[in-house]
Design a protein that fits this description.
With 112 residues, the protein is an all-alpha fold. The chain has 5 helices and no strands.
Length: 112
């Protein structure tokens, strides 16, 4: 890991879906962290995988084993795709859709 890795706090993700936006917030946090640091892709992947805890770490180890993924050959966009496939479920998109609908409708009733 780079020297400045220990100086900056990366967000961690445990795979526990307490809030519908947890996975999106973590991914945004990682992207924000990487905008501050000019890391090579392999370093980004290493830091990202290090940031996975609990169920998320178990998921990643399973995906890596089943798909035969070599971490040093994995690109950032491919990791994002796999992560979104797992954690941006139908529940996530329905929740986002409902929030948009509520925002658009405001507090008026259907009859109004």
């Amino acid at each position: 890991m780079p020297d400045d890795f220990n100086k900056s706090k990366t967000p961690s993700f445990d795979g526990e879906l307490k809030n519908i936006e947890d996975e999106e917030a973590w991914l945004f946090g990682m992207n924000k962290f990487f905008k501050l640091h000019d890391y090579k892709v392999n370093t980004k992947i290493g830091i990202t995988i290090f940031s996975l805890k609990g169920k998320a770490n178990i998921w990643w180890e399973d995906v890596k084993r089943v798909r035969g993924i070599k971490t040093e050959e994995l690109g950032w966009h491919e990791f994002n795709r796999l992560f979104k496939k797992k954690y941006f479920s139908e529940r996530y998109y329905v929740g986002k859709s409902n929030k948009f609908y509520e925002l658009k409708m405001g507090y008026i009733t259907d009859e109004e």
